[in-house]
Amino acid sequence: MTNLERERCKALAVEIGDFVTLTPAVFRAFCETEREIFVPFSNHAYKLDAQPISDDQWISSPLTVAKMTLALECENVDNILEIGCGSGYQAAILSKLAHRIFSVERIQNLANEAKKRFEILNIKNIHVRFDDGNFGLKSYAPYDRILLSAATNEVPKTLFNQLKIGGILVAPVGQNKQFITKFIKHSDENIEKIVLDECLFVPLLSGRA
Ligand code: SAH
What we know:
This is Protein-L-isoaspartate O-methyltransferase. The chain has helices at about 5-15, 25-30, 60-70, 90-95, 110-120, 155-160; strands spanning about 50, 60, 80-85, 100-105, 125-130, 145-150, 165-175, 180-185, 190-200. It is α/β, with parallel strands linked by helices and about 210 residues long.
């Protein structure tokens, strides 16, 4: 990272901090992740907006990424599953906080582009899988945390089955209005649901594109 990029990332982290209280580790993760590499228009990279990427998909607003990341409470956990890798920015932020990240994407082109970005950035703890995330990623389950980066009316049961007891799942839930929703799996039968901020994500679709 050049000094200029470093300063821009830090300014972004400070700006996000005007809206939500970042933990020191999450603040650092934003400082260390060059958003420019993930967006199509680098002059917009450090604005608090969502942006279109390829294949009709969107890279989330950095403020939304921050809210999802904070809700996930994932500092130092072993493994996280993300559904909807997209540009890979959210996964890159998570890679600075937890040990291993598994990110599933149903559009092959996006999965490949995200992989290339992680190589350029020398990020080695993200594993990208081209597949339908409705089924999770069984081979590495169970997970400490699961993050859905696409909106659904109902979180697929399979995903809760791949979450450890005591684990947290965060997802944008709802149809007309979506809310960042946090689920804590106290036991197989007892899953606590906490509704947080309103948000806007593209829908969780079925099947590989
Ligand atoms: N986390 C991303 C935001 C991605 S937008 C980022 O930081 O850029 C949501 C993504 O979810 C899209 O790329 C879309 O293709 C993907 N998606 C939607 N339904 C999916 C499914 N069933 N399985 C895997 N990915 C899915």
